[in-house]
Amino acid sequence: MKDKNQAKYSEYCREHIEEFKNELRDEANRAMISWPARTAAVLLFISSILTYVVQVAQGNPYSELTLLAYSFALLIVIGYPIATFLFAQVEKYSYLAIDLLCIAGMLGFSFAVYVVLLGSESQEQLSNNFQLMQGQVAFVLALGTAFSFHTGFWITIVRNILFTACVAFAIYLTDSDFFRLNIFPILEGFFMGTMINWVFHDGIRTRFYLKSTDADTRQHLYNQLSKLVYPHQLERIKLGDELENTMPLKEGKAIINVFDVQRSSEIRHERTADFFMGLFQSFLQICMEGYEHNPLRSQAFRLKETGDGFISSVGYPFLPVDSRSLADSAVSTALQMFEAFNKEVEKFNYSRPIKAAMGLAYNSVQGTFQSGGIRSYDLFGEALIQAAKYEELRKQSVLWEIFTSQAAEMGMENFNIMIVQEVVYNSLSPAYRDLFIEIELTDPRLVDREFQMMYDNDAKYIYFHLLP
Length: 468
Known about the structure:
8-stranded mixed sheet, 468 residues, alpha+beta, Alpha-Beta Plaits, 2 domains
């Protein structure tokens, strides 16, 4: 199972080589400007001081040179943060800075060996220094080859071979006898450092895979959640807010628009579902015009789709986007929806006319989240009931006769119709009010047919507007 995971991680890193390379560079940069490089610098400094103290005690005339052994490596550690501060692009080469620090440290050790052996004044002192320095060879090589930040491990192997060869050659030039005594420690340091490097490389690769796939998963979840809630809800949820706190819940007032397609059950077409999907998408775009987070506003709020119907509200839970009266905003939005509907019908290219109806009513509404399961947001209140009943007035035979008679006078055989509540009509500006035709509920045609207005007992008039 572990081998399968490693193969999976390796394959993922190959497929995302640029991202993996950037991850390694970031890791190398963090190492160069934080505690790993600083710790290495402290160790090199302490090593220089201790070597100097020992050589002074032994009377080495070149003991001062040991203080210079790791000077270049220390200069790299000190200079890198300054260089990145002055030139940000230097961070792109952080992995090379790590390599340079490692080889500088190992060659510094080789120089320290040279100074120590050079200052040996007797065969006994030389033997003692052989033993002293020999014990450090494997450790220094292991430490210098244990960390690299290259995308391919084979690059690290080549790097370690070159580093080891350079150190071995430097030791050979220093003292061939010392080199022969340290052939095994040199190889031991190389293999030990390379094995540590493999564990280090595999750890970074595994972490990159888990972090990247987790980020991909979270992004996918975010994208899918954005289909269920509004952008402002996503932002508040990201900040730790509860879903139930992201939408208004107190009672308010709104104009509800109930849209329905006339005789939709009679539509027979292979693309009926696509027609309604395109239509409701157009309606959603109209509703979302002018959407803002703070304060929460848009042209309308899409409440729900009902198969062949669409319900929206103006004024709650989103504030209207303009300063016109709520009634003007609602009627303006309804007219835009009729225009979008006619365009979709034209694209649908059905063999018979397809017409729609809308009912608009103003009253109280309140927001709520479902108590269990999927916590979808919903509205309830008198306005929804009344708007649905106003839209259904077209189904009353006595009213339909009045509508069709009026349509005939206007030269229309088939028509879209908008029916609005009396309070909505009275709240309109004159320009919109002139669109509507009034029917008094005491009209003999209604009284003779015993017509009764349901769910709006205070109503005295019905107002309708016919559209082609």
